[in-house]
Amino acid sequence: MNFVVIGTSYRYSPIEIREKLFFSKRRLKEIMACAKETARLNSCIILSTCNRVEIYANVSHEESGSMVLREFLGAFHEISVVGIEPYLYDYAGQMALAHLLKVVSGLDSQILGESQISEQVKFAYSEAQHAGCVDLVLDFLFQQALRWGEIVRAAAGISAGSVSVGSIAVQLMKKTFGNLREKKILILGAGKVTELLVQSLKQEFPKTVFISNRAFEKAAQFADQLGGEAVRFDRFHKKLQDADIVVSSTSSTHRILHKEDFEKIDHSVCVIDLALPRNVDPEVGHISGIRLFNLDDFTSELIEDFQSKAKVVKLAEEFLSEAARKIWQEFLMWAPEPALWH
Questions:
Q1: Does the annotation count 50 as an active-site position?
Q2: Active-site hit among 44, 50, 133, 270
Q3: Is 198 in a helix, a strand, or coil?
């Protein structure tokens, strides 16, 4: 039994690399089953979010298992392992568990203490269970990590405060335009990110907010909260020409906004791409008068928040390190024989 993790995150790789390694949420069960079979893993759980891609696994041999996971990443995404190697990290045993605890608690998140990562880990864990990819080893370690991650987040208070994806997006808007009261905003997508954005925009009173989503009803629900207008997804381009700010956070696996969509716009526009894979063609940022931001631009905006929580984070990390040691000791005493893993 060898518990390992291999992956990359916003700390180690730019968005151009992360989107190449991204695993579709809709296909996650299928992908994990494929990884377990082709890489000959005892079990595996894949965590793929906007800011990280990680494969946790129970492998027969630590060293060869780590290499097999690298090869699976490269083969599945049809890219060279050599090309992605500089951006990857891997941990084994207690270190892998310590990393998982840090991830679940939000200590390794771009926005410190954010709770969304815990839900994302739970989703990955649940999908792996349904795919038959979780054995007793991963079941025990993930259950413990989810439990202790919640304890640390609550006890340390690292999630306290108003910083969110939505508030940072609003900061970028205000950095570009200042007051938003006379601005027209077009939002594409109606998921969790849009929910956070709508909450932050309530304090800014923009002139007009258009929200477009493939599921029109969801767009309408968010638009109502801001006194805005819902737009059917096949018609949002008509609103694009007048928008001062465009925010995109759809789950599309391909670009939905291209350079030609902005070339005839004769006023300054702030474009914020909150999706991974990215929704907006990077070439859009080369157009005069267009300021394009993506998830990697959030880091500089979050320095103050990190500095204000530095002491609390240090204490939380020390606590998690000790928790990892105790959980691992308990695990080694409990660990079943290989024949009983499933």
A1: yes
A2: 50
A3: helix
